[in-house]
Amino acid sequence: MVLQFVWPNIESTSRSMLSFEETTRVRRSIRGFLGKPIPDSVIREVLEDAQHAPSNCNTQPWNTHVVRGEKLKQLSQLLHAKNNAGDFTPDFSFDVNDFYDEYRERNNALGKAYYEAMNVMREDKEARHRAGAMNYSFFNAPQAAFLFMPSFGDNVRVAGDMGMYGQTFLLSLAARGLGGIPQTALGFFAATIREFLGIPDELKLLFGISFGYPDDDAPGNRVRMGRVPLDTSVTFHA
Ligand SMILES: Cc1cc2nc3c(=O)[nH]c(=O)nc-3n(C[C@H](O)[C@H](O)[C@H](O)COP(=O)(O)O)c2cc1C
User: How high is the pLDDT of residue 185?
Assistant: First the structure.
């Protein structure tokens, strides 16, 4: 289904929002932002929406750090340097080779779509590295949120809560004609980001979200990921 609508003008009214159905369908990962910052009042509204996410045993485990301006530029330089040096310090392991069968295929489809959008040839390793490193320029977003969490047990339930918070955050952006992208890539440098922002070791970084005004002309925003049919994912029992 293709939805056509007029983006609400958030400067004249942040109250004119998309319907729930429009919001869920229009939300997608934005990989190119305009340099214009989002007003603080609107950022606070988005954070307020996210704050209403459910959580296991009402723990509300999200500890969100919003970084902007000069501080974000400095962090970007630091992350590019660490990425080039391969100096990864993740709190949680991640290996795409763990994906199998249809999950691997779906991940491959994403890689193909992104590199095609960025005009990168599969065998061009350097260009692929540059395209991937866009994560550390926050895809040009003037603000990014880092989603830190306390560590409880195997962390699976906390991570679930963080996902709910993240999706509420993303939908709130989309409803306002804004955009965002959740980024595991930021979690690869958890210790670096923690030290840079002065965050205690007890808080772990699962992912970050770069967000802002989508740049419709950015090549990264040509990516459109489809979904498998409903009945592939859902089984009804009675
Ligand atoms: C927790 C999480 C982490 C993600 N990390 C990244 C990332 O590091 N870099 C990136 O380009 N996309 C990242 N994505 C975006 C996914 O690739 C995207 O959600 C998926 O391909 C579906 O596309 P859509 O969001 O446009 O619907 C992440 C998504 C989630 C939910």
Answer: 98
